[in-house]
Write a structure and sequence with these properties.
17 helices; five-stranded mixed beta sheet
Amino acid sequence: MTAPTAPPSLLSALRPQNQDRLYDFYRDLRTADELRWDRTLNAWVATGHEVVTGTAGDPRFSSVRYPDIEAVSEELRPLARVLSRQMLYSDAPDHTRLRGLLSRAFTPRSVAALSGRIGEAVDRVLTRAAPTGRLDVVADLARPLPLAVICDLLGVPEADRPVLSAWSDPVAAAIGSSRLDAEESAAASRSMERMLDHLRTLLTRQGGSPAPHTLRALLAAGTDDADQDLDELLANCALLLIAGHETTTHFIGNAALALLRHPRAADELRARPELIPAAVEELLRYDSPVQLMLRRARHDLDLAGRRIAAGQAVLLVCGAANRDPAVFPDPDRLDFHRPGGRHVAFGYGPHFCLGAALARLEGTLVLEALLTRLPDWRLDTPAPTWQRSLNFRGLTTLPTTFTPHHATPTG
């Protein structure tokens, strides 16, 4: 009798043959076991919605990514030290304090005030593309727009944005990878160091009063230990700049691809634009820009019938949880009328994404514009290519075509 084949490692998600069938791969993992030990990654892998949400909000688990910085490679250590000061990888009370400070840049009023500028930026892109009949949704729209928005929100001058984007790419690649070679680790550490130096100059320059929502205003709200506060604030400003555009870029690209592959769904939104807010939530569930959350057991504990040892990592696969049929019936169907069920595309629990409202606003305005301005919008590639990352799910390019026309800006 042949012994049953063990499920593959989560790392197999990076194989090219699994990239475009990622959710089939997750389904196979979840069907085999919703919580299993992955020997290749030396971590527990959770794929069921209940165990993912339960663990994400469980105080028995820590969000600290590098509990022992000296244990990582020498090349990665400088980056690990910075990441360890970011709220994403912090626990209460540090996480609570940092989130309270940085949330001042994401108040409902601050986010709503960006609506007009986001709409104008989308308008400019589509007006330029109109006479050509071609639009790379990722390169022309999904990548530059969120970067401009987060920089605008935080008061980063336009001239500084290209270099900040270039520095963020190696860091995002490092965050999204489980295995880095020495060169990749060193490149990510150098990029983070340059970003921090640049932000330090921006934050501490003299002259003028900062606008209430900017990085300089956040610095002014610090406590008496100026050096410690500045280093900590710089680390978290880097987090906002990287996460603030990386994830929204992927969301816009993934949502556009889903609509292009489901033309009836796109036609439904054109006919019933009031469904777009519900569509945004369904598209986030359907192909999430962030695929993983990491938690680490604070002490020996039981989880879903398994014994988790102190210090062991649990990888919470958000993308798999969002396709769990126990919560989302017929989960592989794109359904803008789907009742109930809470997706975890923005995380879950205390670390729920600080910029969720901003990402929703950008997604709503982009989808409205694409569907309205490009009635015969269609995919121009048989097989889009995905970035190689376990953590982030995003396209490298998304070429599309439509009937050329001379557009008049709507703004």
